[in-house]
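**User:** My hope is that you can spare some time for a protein that puzzles me. As I understand it, each token names a local backbone shape. I would be glad if you read both lines and explained how they fit together. The protein I mean follows directly.
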Amino acid sequence: MQQIFGLLLDVAMPVAIALFVVLPLAGIALGALAAWLILKKVSKKKSERKLTDAERRAEERLADAEKRAKEMLDTAETQAKQIRKEAQLESKEQDIKRRNDFEQEMKEKRAEQQRTEARLNRQEDFLEKKETELNKKSSALDEQREALSHRTQELSKKEEVVARQQELMTQELERVAQLTREEAKKQLTEEILEETRRDCAVQVRNLEQEAKEEADINAKNIISLAIQRCASDHASETTVSVVPLPNDDMKARIIGREGRNIRALENATGIELIIDDTPEVVILSGFDPVRREVARLTLEKLIQDGRIHPARIEETVEKVQKELDQQIKAAGENAMFEVGIFGLHPEIIKLIGRLKFRTSYGQNVYRHSIEVANLAGLMAQELGLDVNFAKRAGLLHDIGKAVDKEQEGTHIQLGADLAKKYKENAMIVNAIMAHHGDVEPKTIEAVLVQAADGISGARPGARRETGTNYVKRLEKLEEIAAGFAGVERSFAIQAGREVRVIVKPDQVDDAKALFLAKDIAKKIETELEYPGQIKVNVIREFRSVEYAK
């Protein structure tokens, strides 16, 4: 229908175009004809009376108008015929073209339809073959299912017979053993577990004994040799420095008029001055040890000079800071020479010198770092490892403590960042980050730095601990050990380096005692903070007492 409507539209379009062109021309012609008739009628009436010159000119113009109108009419008729003829020819051409296109499209659709029918026929044949094959397979499956059903029934009957026989055998065994099935299973499981636990304990004890015999000899030799060859000095400092005065009159001069001298000194150094009733003493208080040292030296110079006023204070502070920077650099170089390593960055050397004014748990970090470097180097030498690498890592392991008062972060992270900043080896960075176990050590030298750090911090007198904290740590240690089942009493001895646990012999046997010691040690590691290591000694004693009468 759409194609037929299109053909009709193509035929009607030229006719409509011809009508739109012819109708205006016909209107013009009719208008000219009407004007001619009117003029003719008027000229006829005027001919009856006597014509004047004006009338004659009008008649001439009228005649010309009639002539032009007639010519226009003839031209319009000729153009209308020509347009009509062209429209008819164009309409015929379009009609022929549409017919040809329609026939071509119909041929293509018939060809496509034939191809589709052929494809559907092939698919239908294929599906018929598949259906035949599926029917055959379904029949075969039905036969197999029937055979399996018969076999399943036979197996079910055999299983019932076997179950009855097994039940009879179980009843007979229960009658003979005088135990139910669950009781026998439980007893057998307990015996197997106990035997396995006993065998494991014996095996573990043998392995541990062999390892200890070898490790103790080597470790004691290496550590004792390292400690004997490295006896470093130790200086304990706090956050307070005391400056002696020649007399109490000097306090007034330090304070100054309306306190301007003491304010100038505190502003210039960043350290608080405490002037109390203590005779001939001024106390300097501050967390930054370098600033506190600057304030101490400045105050001593001002006391010796005698001129104490704000301008003199600022001048002296600046001079002391320069001198202290030189001392810090010299201290860093001395540490480098003492340990025997070279090639450190100048800024790293200054940071090592700053550690001279830093303490940790009452232990001077500068001396501690030198001590760790020497211990790590000696152990590396005994093991045939890189001595320079171990010393370098030991000297730099606490370098972050030189800036932890000024920057945020742990001294481990700050130390690793400083080592990276000044182009230290990646293995040195790993040793710094691993010396407290925050990351896994990648080298044996890093493990030696851990051990040397523990030795330096755990040796007697290296670090101070308040009496209250010491008592609390011992009480916590005894509490952890007493919290396990079968423990009768526990005692913390050797200044908290060992805990002796006495167990009840009727509840804890030899195998359980071994595992109990391991469990107590693990719990101590997770719940308690302590320097060095703690020995867990589990004691199992069985006494049989009888009296002769």
Notes: The two ends are 135 Å apart (CA to CA).
